[in-house]
Structure prediction request, 794 residues.
Amino acid sequence: MLLNEPRLRQRMTDAGLDAVVATAPENVTYMSGFWALPQWIRRGPQAYVVWPASNRGAPEIITSTSTLDLVADQDVGAAKVRRFGEFHAELSPNAVGDPVGQEHLQLRRLPPHRDAIAALVAGLEEARLGNGHIGIDETGLASGHLEALAARLPNVKITPAAALLREVRAVKTDHEIDRLRQVARIAERSIEAALGVAKVGATELDLARAFHVQTIEDGAFPVLGCIGFGERSALMNVQPSDRRLRIGEIIRFDVGGRFHHYRADVARIATLGEPPPEARRLHRALLRGVQHACEIIRPGIAASHVFGEVMRVVQREGIPHYRRDHVGHGIGLDGYDAPTLSSNSSEVLEEGMVLCVETPYYEIGRWGLQVEDMLVVRSGGVERLMATDGEIIAVPL
Amino acid sequence: MLLNEPRLRQRMTDAGLDAVVATAPENVTYMSGFWALPQWIRRGPQAYVVWPASNRGAPEIITSTSTLDLVADQDVGAAKVRRFGEFHAELSPNAVGDPVGQEHLQLRRLPPHRDAIAALVAGLEEARLGNGHIGIDETGLASGHLEALAARLPNVKITPAAALLREVRAVKTDHEIDRLRQVARIAERSIEAALGVAKVGATELDLARAFHVQTIEDGAFPVLGCIGFGERSALMNVQPSDRRLRIGEIIRFDVGGRFHHYRADVARIATLGEPPPEARRLHRALLRGVQHACEIIRPGIAASHVFGEVMRVVQREGIPHYRRDHVGHGIGLDGYDAPTLSSNSSEVLEEGMVLCVETPYYEIGRWGLQVEDMLVVRSGGVERLMATDGEIIAVPL
Prediction:
């Protein structure tokens, strides 16, 4: 299971919630395992999970009739399903021998609701939550939906719950960590594949193609592919262009795909031939910062403390003027999960958090350097999810 | 330019709007050419375009400081830029020789606003729109933003504008049609590549990998990859699995990537070896429906009329019980642009619309068959964007 159920139950109890409703794609998938294609690739399509408190009944997926095939075909954790809208399909007598088809047909026999909000209202009312305290993930609802809900459930107390769910998602289950481990490795192998085509005259787009092809070959889906050469490596969000690579130039990767819906976000620096000594010096300071984080991170330490320590080390080790708002963040179904490693964070690290620790450094017009590792907070310290050490990768000429 | 500016101006005049504010990723990119990475790959990050009526000044991009590199590196159409938030970067003396770096530095010298809404309020006030009638694309704002705007601009009349912008986007410019033509061809080439690995024992995932790799090689980004064999082809949103291909089975593709942000959505049926005669018979009816649409579509015809005609032809040509809610939709930056070819649509086709015309037919437990073509509505009829004719592709054994 993706969901950290004890943590969700605890937060719900703390907040006095009778139920939580997931509405954003990452929360729906997180709470049920259900991945609703239309919701993930477009804005607007609605799918929900209603998750009642322990004594209030079973969780329920609410989704459009046109996506019931995905419910049938996926390993979803919710006990109940509710559908809305119509979508035509015929029944073949052959369906008997096809378990997914059978399940699909059964789901299609459920009574349809008019639309997503009507289904949600019915779901809450049938679960006798019509005068409860409901936490609603406000991030996935369409404009006006929250108001419509409030109007149709006048006795419900509604509290926004996106922040609560983000907090729950921060501590990963083993199942999630396994996916994150795999997607981190896929990102590293994809960097290696990209560097396989790095030579004088190769373009950023050449490397990006090789990167994403490897990501696909390894079973993941491309998402982030910031790959920049030379002065373009200083563009934080650099999108690959036909800029050609020259000897001695920096190649910055800030990259990562999705594997079974879980994101990677890692950064590595390479150079074509030997790196300029100054780049090596600066990069060493950045790497020391990440290495120091790996040494000090353990459960119970404050995120803000990690931030201060990493900044201090980078500044001491070679970049006295180093400035950052944060030196890392959680990662999971979203590329920026909790916690944030920043000076003003009040978060405390917990066992099972998966973090991207990063020390980017941008000199506009010259180069951008960056180390970003993925790691798990373990009881005894850190488990790095990386196969490479974060040193500059000098591609032989 | 992506934007159909005369159409936008006309709709704004009709609606009595002094300005329109784009907030959803597709509308921001559409109105300015600006593609803000964080907004496209996550939910939450904000970027806007303020587009005043003709006599009200120049359009303005509002985006976070951390994305100014993308503004500098992209061919954006808006004359003004406004930034919010901080993001640290150093200035290299080398920046002088780097035009993108120079532009980036200049943008970073703009005064920062505290957050997205503060920047938007300032932008509207400075453009003397503080007591105007503003159309706000409600689909990209975070929860509570619309209320915050209304509170901070008490003299502004706010009207939701997502529907208006969708209507504007429905009639494509030449620049857009060029991208759509290319992405449609990439989808077809990717189907061809996938069929290149179709053989007894190949899995859906094998074909999906070959499909997405070709999409990447052709310069596009994977989005939609529904590829199903046999009884799994009847799952509308089928996600590739390790199901193995057998002789004579249906392979259904409902697929398409993004090329320069523009979507493809096409469907083709293949079989390993000769198709079953019954599949051929049903498929012929579906193909006739799409072919008939291509014959009758022209500017001035009602979307609902096309729907009725396509349904009539499919029913007459071999599937008397054929039922659908729609037989097609527009396509562009979003996978479902206006118009919708449905019985209850009040839309009328116009020159320059780009449509996906489709006749899917699902027999749960047996197979799914589908033809989906992309085409442009031209003054004299239809320009198909497809290289293939839509017949069943029989892969030789």
About this structure: Chain A has a mean pLDDT of 96.
